[in-house]
Amino acid sequence: MSNSVNISVETTCENQIREIGYDGTELYQPPPTLSESLAKCAARIDFSKTSLDDLKKEEKTAAAAEEENKDGTQFQESLWPWDAVRNKLKDALTEICVLSDVISIAKDKRYLVLDPLLEEGDDTKPIVQVYSRKKAISQAAQVLLSGAERLRNAHSEQRSRNVSDFHIELLRLRQNWRLKKVSNAIIGDLSYRTAGSKFGMSGTFEVTKAEEASDDDSASTSTTSSSTATNNGMQMKASSALRVIVPAELQGVAYIKVITQKDQEDLCTAQVNLMGHGPNITAQVGVWQKTLEFAQNVLFCKELFAQLAREAIQLQAPIPHVVIGNQIRATLLPNIQLIISLCHSTTFDSNQPAPINDHDHVLEHSLHQLLREVHYKNSHHPFPHPASAPLGPTKKRMLAGPMAADRETLLDMTKSQTILEQIIAQAQHIFMRKRTQYVLDTLARDVKDPQIVSHWNAMNSPTMSCVKINIVTHGYDAIGRTSLVIHVKERSLKCICRDGRVMRLSYEPQELRDLILCQINSHQISCLVSLARCMAWTVLSNSNHLGIGKVEPLGNASSCLLASPNGDRMIAVQIRCDPQIDVKVYIARSPRQDFFPSPLVPEKLWENLGGNFKEVKFDKIEGKSFLNKMEFLMASLTSNTA
Amino acid sequence: MASVSSARESLSHALNNRFLPNLEYLLQGSILDSAVEHLMHRLKGLCDNVDTSPETFHDLEVCMSLRQPNSNQPLLLRVRRALGRDAPFQMRYLGQPEVDQRRPTLVRSCMDCACTNGILEFLTEMGFRLEFEYIAKGYMFRKGRMKITVSKLIKIIPGKQQDMANEPISQSYIVELSVVAPTGQENVGEEMRVFAEQLKPLVQLDKIDYKRLGSMP
Amino acid sequence: MGVTVLQPYPMPEGKSGAHIIDYLGKRLLSLGATHAGQFLVDCETFISTPQPHNGTPGRAVHVLHNSEYPASTFSIIDSGTGKQVSLVADSIFDLLMLKMTNTFTSKKQTKIESRGARFEYGDFVIKLGSVTMMEHFKGILIEIEYKSCMILAYCWEMIREMLQGFLNINVGKDFPTYFATQTIMTAMGQQQLHAKHNDLYEPTDTVKQYLEQFTNYRKHVSMHGSLSGTSGIQQPVHMSSSPVMGAAGGLVLIRS
Question: Which Gene Ontology terms of cellular component type are present (chain C) (predicted)?
Fold first, then answer.
């Protein structure tokens, strides 16, 4: 319903009041009858416009009639209403009669001759006309010339003062931003709505012409440009003829700061600030470009943060996410937190150091990209094929019916990860990758023999990267090499060994450390076995899992027993890996030198059984590495017997 | 654990709660080949995803009819297939169009059903007979939930569906603006009318009553 | 998505269906299977009125739904000539069938469904379905699916062992009748032996097995109905449908 109220307008009473009695009663004039109103109408007919003479006469008669009427209305009001009409008609008749008489006389041409009158108006001479025209034209020329002069002056003034033209600037603005004219104002839109954003905040700005006064003074005196110009830390060198007014909530600088924290200690920080992206076109366009870019960045950061905050509240995490003011806290791994905060300052302080410089470009880029992806998905829907199919469902969903997709597949289609989930996953992954790198690097540093070489794949996904680890002994590369691949995921590691074993490790770095140590262990033993074969020694037994000491789920101490080519020497090797790599080597010889027949073992032949194992001071043996030392040891034991 | 509801139940649930888009709002027009470039430019400017080139399509439509014992109107089903693409066949039922003067668009009931490619054989077994077939080839745009197709209709020489030698039916493109929406969304028509207004005078999109065209060949 | 075998459970005398379902369910649970929801497979048959003037025989369109494939409607048409054509479509196909009620009328009396609990054990999915037609209990159908394989010939032995060990159903060494080798006509019009158990399994195969079993149950009913003389209202419908059902049944016989 509209709020309008109907008002009817009408005269208060239809008839005039003729008389008011002493007692207050009003006597109305009765409404005119049909004939009376006809007479009234007829009296209004204007007979006077027929000729000039008539008009004059009319005036007189009208004046007379006025007089007469005065009397008439007083005394003979209703006596003769048609009187005036009759008189006028009578006059007209008289005139017609006279005219017809005159014409009939004039026809004979005896008493009366009709002559045309001389026209009087056209007696101006042509020369006068020429002069007057010339004068008018020169006057017009004067106006045009003075206008041109003014324009020229203005133009040259602009040139000299390097003041850009409002319209040129507006044209440039129009090339880069969305503008529209609303009545007299020019309104622009810097929101991402056309790019698929559904953020509610308005991104409109107003374009005005800079006042002349402010051009003369330094531009910073003007209120609007001073706020924008100083905010962005720029001095307005060239004053612009165009000014943009950005809403207060979009002024200033904003960025999103991402910090991963472990026990209050910052591990990695990232900021999202779109500044500096894209070609710098500020030089060729006005300063407003910078202003608008900053405002758009503020809008983007606000949208991103609003989205993240909304998701943080909706997500059901085991440890709930916390949103306080401009900050979101999420737990990545035990004791490690991800803090995303929106920083928005409207006053720029040039003394303030630039916000942390070593920010993580990857997370910064990811956050930006994730929101853009949301925008993209909002605006880019797949087209149906064939064309008659309905708009909306994804290609997968279109196939689901005819391809008889089962329930799980259909459920998977409805699932999607939120931005927060994705960014948490990415941050977790970054953290896991750093941890893995750290563990591998420290191990490679600490363990000199064998050498641990890790190759990181250059091509990663944001939540998965891959490292290949080669364990080799320097100088013995050809004998053996142990390689394994580790997939670094969000919260876990997956190790794939050469033999096809797959192990899943948690985020605890100790597990990876243990695994690598065990792998070193088995590397040493397997290389030793191959080396022994090369040197014609016999491998009596070897085991990768002795089951002594601390029992680890991924591996244990390993051992190996070797016999010399003619069987008179034996070497036993045990390698433990908890917590440090520890090598023990024992040797035994047969026939044993310390064999003495006893009543229990009387025969001499038992001396060939081999004697007690004696530990070798392994670190004293010459050689660079374990295998090198073992080679020396084996060689010396072989040559002793020869 | 909740008991499983039958497919029919969930379908009627969708119908009753107006989830199921079953009404097509349609405006149609045509434009000469020589002017279609201008229309494409305007559509590029008006529609979503202007940054990418317009989506093309190339479909074969086969209309099958079933004579019904108690009515003289045969039941028509249109089966559409995207040529050169791995997409399911689309079967389409279109109801009698309502040309309501008060509504800005033509409205007809509509059912879209994706099927496996045995559909034509299936319909033949059911007793359907081939009514007509043609190839539609052209461009598709979208603006919100509106779909705009600019298509060229191509005659088929029977038995030569894949042949490139098939000739266009006319020297013009058919332009269709359509929305398929659930019942009870009356503002759709207005939205479409406003959009159609923006395509004038290149193409005059109108509600076309086929019953009046019935006598034409 | 794997291979599914459908097996009717022989009903011992004097035991109610609910009792057996309960017993089988407990047996599965105690052997380590986990309960994983419910399932429903239903079938509705539409019959066309034969049109003698142009020689078209009566046709039956079976429309089936399987809760395992919630977005799809399966339909299988039996033309009078013994040819079967199957179609998988969006679930809106049901509404299209309603548009054809002039030609194809639904036989509500033969609406049949199998409904029950779903169990999972490793890569196996076991479904214990009790079959009801018009709210009357008809029997028990056991569906067993092996999810890691697409070809029956490779996993039949495993499924068989599962049936015997877990459910105590004696199953012969041969492939089930649905998968048996059959003669088909090639596109060239030649007859050829086709080993179905070597085919890639498709969801339609599950549905076809259900239709086969449902048809058996219905046939059973119509035979019983004609013997015992059911109510007069149902009788004519059964009579009119019998040629079609006979055709469908005949098809099954040819296959087995």
Answer: mediator complex
Determine, yes or no, domain membership for B160: yes
**Bridge partner residues of B66 (DSSP):** B75
Number of domains in chain C: 1
Q: Residue B143 belongs to what domain range?
A: 22-199
| DSSP structural state of residue B96 | P
What CATH number does residue B158 fall under?
2.40.320.10
| C-alpha distance from C57 to closest chain B C-alpha (Å) | 10
Q: Which of A376, A385, A394 to mutate to test the interface with B (most CBs of B within 10 A)?
A: A385
Q: How far is C70 from chain A (nearest CA, A)?
A: 6
Structural domain of residue C128, as residue ranges? 3-255
In order of A29, A204, A585, A634, the CA distances from A571 in angstroms are 148, 84, 7, 8
| High-pLDDT (> 90) share of chain A, % | 14
Is B12 part of any domain?
no
Q: Is C77 on the interface with B (CB under 8 A)?
A: yes
Three-class SS state of C75: strand
Taking only the tens of pLDDT, chain B with its 217 residues reads: 445 677 677 777 777 776 788 889 999 999 999 999 999 989 988 888 767 778 899 999 999 998 887 777 888 999 999 988 888 999 999 988 877 778 888 899 999 999 998 899 999 888 899 998 899 999 999 888 899 999 999 988 766 656 566 788 889 999 999 999 888 888 888 999 999 999 988 999 988 877 666 554 4
* Lookup: tokens for A330: 């999420």
pTM check: above 0.80: no
**Is residue B4 one of the residues assigned to a domain?**
no
pLDDT tens-digit map of A268-304: 555 555 554 444 444 455 678 888 888 888 899 899 9
In a domain, B190, yes or no: yes
Is there a contact between A391 and B145 if contact means CB atoms under 8 Å apart? yes
Identify whether the C-beta of residue B78 lies closer than 8 Å to the C-beta of residue B128. no
Say whether C72 and A407 touch across the interface (CB within 8 A): no
Report the number of distinct structural domains present in chain B: 1
Q: At what angle do helices A509-534 and A626-641 cross, to 10 degrees?
A: 30
CA distances from C178 to A475, A627, C5, C181 (A): 65, 65, 9, 9
| pLDDT per position as a tens digit, A236-253 | 445 677 788 888 888 888
